[in-house]
What does this fold into?
Amino acid sequence: QVQLVESGGGAVQTGGSLRLSCKTSGLAFERHSLAWFRRASGNQFEGVACINRNGAVTLYGNSAQGRFTISRDNAKNTLYLQMDRLRPEDTDMYYCKAKNDWSCSLRSYEYPYLGQGTQVTVSD
It folds into this structure.
């Protein structure tokens, strides 16, 4: 059974930082590309960042570019998202997703595996 368990969310003030983690089990972690999504308005997933199988390629959504850093530790089966210079508009539920593919993308429908999410709240 595939499980993705996010953690690290919380409440911070503008300009603060958080580090999200996504611990996986039940899948061949090194064979999956991974991504972080947020639940944008309209109940749609918005791509935040993704990383390919070996960590050599990353992509970022416009709002994350320059402030967030995605990384993975294949030895620990864990995905990370370092979030710096947080803004109130970053407030949302953040989810990790996985797909069995070499390359990553920010298209949510390509990822069959989804975690339960972790809440990020940024106040003024």
User: Anything to note?
Assistant: The chain has a mean pLDDT of 96. The longest strand covers residues 18-25.
